[in-house]
Amino acid sequence: MDTLGRAKISVQAVTKRFSGKRGQVTALKELSLDVQDGEFVVIVGASGCGKTTLLNLVAGFEKPSQGRILLDEEPVTGITPECGMIFQQYALFPWKTVQANVEFGLKMKRMPVKQRRERAARFIDIVGLKGFEKTYPHHLSGGMKQRVSIARSLANDPKVMLLDEPFAALDAMTRQVLQEQLVRIYEKHRKTIIFITHSIDEALLLSSRIVVMTARPGRIAQDIVNDLPHPRNATVQLSSRYMDLKRTIWDSVQAEVMKSMEVEAD
Ligand SMILES: Nc1ncnc2c1ncn2[C@@H]1O[C@H](COP(=O)(O)OP(=O)(O)O)[C@@H](O)[C@H]1O
Ligand SMILES: [Mg+2]
Questions:
Q1: Structure pTM?
Q2: Residue with the nearest Cα to atom 27 of ligand 1?
Q3: Which ligand is closest to the CA of 43, given by its number?
Q4: pLDDT tens-digit readout, 93-131
């Protein structure tokens, strides 16, 4: 089937304004972005440039002030169950066990108990938490909590996964383990993913495409295909192609960070 021009997610000339105490803030201005089925798009950009706003709009938590967003060619008009959102803070139910957290969305969908128990067990296993089914979140480390969020999201089988700096609060080693796990999950399940990070190395490790946003109001500054070979191990990270990409993205992000500082100084 010819899928050309039929993006999985199509953000079309979206402007988003917020009215705050000090008047209006334009978070995004006429931003357009198409994401194809199975792409792993990583978005980087200065703090406050509108990255979270963009994800909230795609997930249907917020509505555009202008423009529109299509998911599978249908306008997003409210919260979209097809989008699984994963936040920096784990957003688990503290009073529910790992298993009950992972099962939650399935229960909401009225999946029979046996079926949802099996499905939850499968995804708990995939994220390496077998044996922790009956554990409560406060007994888990940050990395383990984030793995529960990922398992919960995967169990719901979302068409699209939206991840907002999911590993930012984790230590370097845990982060690396989860990055590798996410790559494996992506390669196996081929979800369409939009992932936000501050880390250019994380972007280069994970993505099939990297989008740099401008300083607020957010638009697309650069859109780069990440053609680094897999697995993106130490050898790849020392290659000249890696260095070139890193420099290009770094220059672009830095230019925008400088601009955002000027905006703040106004
Ligand atoms: N609900 C809101 N009300 C008012 N202003 C907001 C709201 N959400 C975000 N903003 C503003 O929009 C801009 C973009 O925010 P955000 O999307 O969180 O940026 P990022 O995730 O890139 O750091 C910021 O200036 C922020 O203060
Ligand atoms: Mg944010």
A1: 0.92
A2: 48
A3: 1
A4: 999 999 999 999 999 999 999 999 999 999 999 889 999
